[in-house]
Amino acid sequence: MLEPQTRATLTEQLRPPTGFELVHAVGTTFTLGLDTALSVPLAFAARGVTEQADPIAILDAVRRAADRVDVFAQAGEIALGARNNRLVAFLEPMLHPVTVPAGIFHPKVWFLEFRSGDISAFRFVCASRNLTSDRSWDVVVSLDGAPGNTADAASLEARNAPIVGLLRSLPGSAVVPLVPERTVRIEGLAARFARVEWETPNDLEDLRFHVWRSGAPARPDLSGERALIISPFLQDGAFATIRGGIRRELLVVSRSESLNRLSRGTISGRTSAFVLDAAADPAEENEGTHLGVLRGLHAKVIVVNRERRARVLLGSLNATDAALHSNVEVMVELVGSAARFGVEATRKALGDLIVEHRVEPVDEANADDETGGFLDAVLRAVAGAQMRIDVEGDGPYRLRVSCVDMVPATDDVRFSWRLITRPDEVREGLPSENGSWIEAVALPDVTPYLVVTARDGEGAERSTVVLADLHGDPDDRLDAVIASHLSTPADFMRFITLLLELVGLGTAGAGAGTAWNTTAGAGGDAGAGLFESLIRSVGARGRGLADVDRVVQYLRARGDTAVLPQGFDELWASVWEAQRRLGGSR
Q1: How do beta strands 397-403 and 387-392 pair?
Q2: CA distance 150 to 156
Q3: Quick check: 232 and 281 in contact, CB under 8 A?
Q4: Is 289 buried (19+), middle (13-18) or exposed (0-12) by CB count in 10 A?
Q5: Backbone region of residue 148 per phi and psi (left: phi > 0; alpha: psi in -120 to 50; beta: other values)
Q6: Are the C-beta atoms of residues 102 and 124 closer than 8 Å to each other?
Q7: Residue 530 DSSP class
Q8: According to the model, what pLDDT value does residue 301 have?
Q9: CA dist 416 to 19, 97, 260, 446, 453, Å?
Q10: What letters, b where the CB count within 10 A reaches 16 and e where it falls short, cover 138-148?
Q11: CA distance 36 to 73
Q12: Is the peptide bond before 107 cis (omega within 30 degrees of 0)?
């Protein structure tokens, strides 16, 4: 169980095993906060980088992960987060908004491959928590595996087929087509995942995967004597479907507003209803609501007792009609002893967290389900239409923003939009097919991210981040973003230390600036030590040197050389000459 205050627990599930490094990670989420998405590359960093780290450390971690991470999220459900951060530019290649015909994209899973030498390791994480800063009660199951025996290939492929099929389908659901290299990498990961043999968690006998997709819903056997359902959102039809195979007692744990909206008689007889105790969901001091932070119960669990066995399903599926018939959903099923994992054991484990529900009048103001209300649906439709940004000029730049696809007309809704990097330049309406021009855009402000806001006749509004298809992207744009975070020689030293993982310069902390000042431009052993450390990055490991040189050239071209430490030019000239001779400029 993920408690509201343990927001880091989910990303901790992504960390490589000791001695392993990340090969490829593919994640899915319904909602996504750009600031929270920055925490994902931090989980794969070689050193313990956290969300509290300085921007330069975060920049380095995100840059390293950009080619190895892909995240798919529901179009129209991407939020800016608590603060605007230019570092989200480095997330662009790994973020892929998706659409689902007649439904929503709702799974929260991770496909992970790690390697240590010739040894491969795999992990599948299935959760109910989105990639946001939600303060909610959630569940997560993490499965570790290894390549299976060839003799067992058929049975392994059959077991893994649901999640492998989902993985293969992701590129085709993206609003903006993936570059071919990423699609090929995902297909390769799917092929390897097909034959993974999973470790069964302690005291559990079996595991299965269930994926609901439009036109091909999963049909797990939910028949049994007793059952317990944890579902924050409920609808009569879906609830009746799940309850239909239960012969005796049924316990349901949900949100009070969801239970109140059920038809009279749905919760009666052998069915008992519970809600999260208010004491288990304390409000955090100074917590704002303007970001739509989700609170309270958000876990999705189905427990079914049959004879002496229990089947436990955990993941993203709510007991709603859309979840069963039109959404994309994933649940992992674990089979074990009813005494340890069944209804009574789960009820006891929940303990004082839940209390019996008392029916109250429906509060229509809070009657939306997890997918939000009317404005949320409108924004999903808008975000599902492909936007395009064309960049012209050689700085400052002109940006032409247009909508390639037709956006459905919506009565009584007014739109506005802006670049994520230009919060004060809001345009009314939506970009048209002919396009709207934005003038005098500085290089670090060139971006494919648009913030679109929908406002109804009563003044209510919702916003989302749309990822447009960027054409004519300047080659040195990301270098400009890096340079915008380098304001002192100490910043530059920290950047180069992290980028090259230099040995002998101490940890990448506050003392890095001092380490440079005592070595750069100075004679003696200290200067020689720095030179030798830089030389170790030459040749096969020279990509980092090329990255540094690109930023240096950008700074010089703009005349921003004050951030370069004294003596750097002479030292770098020697290193770059060695790189040219031994490894070639890259």
Answers
A1: antiparallel
A2: 9
A3: no
A4: exposed
A5: beta
A6: no
A7: H
A8: 97
A9: 49, 20, 36, 19, 5
A10: bbbbbbbbeeb
A11: 13
A12: no
Strand-pair partners of 236:
none
Closest CA to 131 of 6, 24, 40, 12: 40
The model's pLDDT over 265-324, given as tens digits with 9 standing for 90+, comes to 888 888 999 999 988 765 544 443 334 556 789 999 999 999 999 999 999 999 999 999
Q: Using one digit for the tens of pLDDT, what is the confidence trace for 173-210? A: 999 999 999 999 999 999 999 999 999 877 899 999 99
Q: Which residue has the tokens 């290299």?
A: 181
The amino acid at 14: L
What is the per-residue pLDDT across 446-501, written as a single tens digit (0 to 9) for each? 999 999 999 998 989 999 999 999 999 999 898 888 888 888 888 888 887 777 66
Beta-carbon count within 10 A of 249 CB = 16
- For 489, the token pair is 């020689």
Half-sphere exposure of 525 (CA within 13 A, CB side): 1
- For 168-184, b/e burial (b = at least 16 CB within 10 A) is bbbbebbbbebeeebbe
Using only the alpha carbons of the chain, give its radius of gyration: 26
Q: Could you tell me the two tokens for 58?
A: 């975060």
At residue 143, the 3 state secondary structure works out as strand
Side chain identity at 575, as an amino acid letter?
A: V
Candidates 131, 106, 561, 167; CA nearest to 325 is 106
Say how far apart CA 531 and CA 399 lie, in whole Å.
43
Please write down the long-range contacts of 2-8, taking CB distance under 8 Å and 24 or more positions apart: 2/127, 2/129, 2/137, 2/138, 2/139, 2/140, 2/299, 3/137, 4/135, 4/136, 4/137, 4/281, 4/295, 5/135, 7/133, 7/135, 8/39, 8/51
3-state SS assignment for residue 85: coil
Residues in the chain: 586
Q: Which amino acid is at 130?
A: N
Q: Any idea of the CA torsion for 226, 232, 237, 241, to the nearest 10 degrees?
A: -30
Number of Cα atoms under 13 Å in the Cβ half of residue 98: 31
